[in-house]
Amino acid sequence: MHYWRIPVPEMWTDILQKIKAAGFTGFTFYSNWGYHAFNSTSLDFETGAHDIGRFFELAPEIGLYIVFRPGPYINAEAKADGFPLWLCTGAYGALRDNGSAYTEAYTPYLNAFAEAAKPYLILNGGNGILYQIENEYADQWIGDPVDKVPDLNASAYMQNMENLARAAGINIPLDFNNPNATPSPGPTSLPLVPKATLTLAVSIATFLAGLAILASALALTDHTCRIKSSTTTATSYLSESRLSPTSCPNFRAAATILGAVENIGPDFPNIFYRHNIAERGTAFNLYMMYGGTNWGSFATPVVATSYDYSASISEDRILWDKYSETKLLALFT
Predict the structure, then answer these.
(1) Would residue 240 show up in a list of annotated catalytic residues for this protein?
(2) Is 136 annotated in the active site?
(3) Which of 42, 88, 90, 175 is the most buried (most CB within 10 A)?
(4) Catalytic-role residue among 10, 57, 77, 240
(5) Predicted structure pTM score
(6) What pLDDT digit, counting tens, does each position of 156-166 carry?
(7) Strands of the 128-132 sheet, one edge to the other
(8) Do 298 and 9 contact (CB within 8 A), yes or no?
(9) CA 194/CA 173 separation, integer angstroms
(10) Which residue in 77, 136, 279, 325 is the catalytic one?
């Protein structure tokens, strides 16, 4: 869930309790830089629903782990992909690279987020177990990834992300994710390779040929992995990241945003989630379990005010038959 899409802290408990009751062990969320930084000189992590400490405090009370995803880029169908609009004027140079102006812009935000998250890390007595740096970042190679020619600027950018988190006191494992480079529909000839995240994602995508159900993250790593060793093929994943968990960090829990409205109900988890289990997947983050609402101008222009996402918990927090089917499989696993 995204706290900024349900900016009423009194409702967070209800949603997280429903996630827990469905058999889930944790929750993850995108923070939104633009939500916390109205201008280039101020940050708000204290007032109303901007106070994310209130959000984090619910985790141990309800019994859920936390995966932090501060960005700075998030996508999430948010306006400017979660960047504050003042960042997008051109005055800060190229974004999502190692340029000094961009670095100076995001550093205060990431430091402030880390300061808010730090008391809730599991090594500090909280429930935070994983901290994602950047999001859907795939610039680690120049040209064909098979040639493995590193983009040194991209590597320096990601190294700075890691250094910044560590310097801010983030002492839990770091991870990053890579967007799915497979267009819709997915290939139909890739052989099944157990314990490969890419195979898992493509197998799901091709289960109903032509349906754009794609995992938007392929490579889950811990903090010991570097961006240069991230891969986009199943065989390379097995050889280079075989010690990583068999995981899908951002599995689409529905397809309505892509127009496949006939696949939003309980048959979706019955088919796709069950298939994940058959593929020996051991960790899944459903995007979304609760979607919420795009208040004001938060939405990117291609989506509606509603961010219901046909999630198991509907936009008005009502449970429907998809929730029941999801709970059945979650409790089974």
Answers:
(1) yes
(2) yes
(3) 175
(4) 240
(5) 0.81
(6) 999 999 999 99
(7) 26-30, 65-69, 128-132, 174-175
(8) no
(9) 25
(10) 136
